[in-house]
Amino acid sequence: MPVDAGSIASQVGASGGLWTHTPVDWRGNETNTPSPPAGWPPNAAAATPPDGSRVDTIAPSITAISVSGITTTGATINYTLDVAGTNQVEYGQTMSFGSVNTEGGGSGPQVKPLTGLTSARLYYYRIRASAGGLTTYSPQGTFTTL
Q: How far is Cα 129 from Cα 86, in angstroms, rounded to an integer?
């Protein structure tokens, strides 16, 4: 399900068109201290824990979606992800899809071959990408096998 900006605004809190901010630690827990916790460098960002790892708080963006290599029994779905995480293509002959290709990972260009399709059929597909506990779905697309 796509991220709903209205829900985010109501959860984060907006007042008179200005965003309000409650200080949080790297786990997202509210904190009343404006300085980093003990052991953190004085210029540490709120989203950077002491071990230097990063907690992603932005849902993945799916762009450059295309279909290539359409044959009688297969096709390839191509797309690009802006953050590393898991991703897969849901596809089928109905809008409820029914099949899922093997889950992949990483960011950047992705190439997902679909095999075992039936010739001369309309297929529906969408891409699901997850990172940092957030999931994004691409718009639904279609292609027809030869």
A: 6
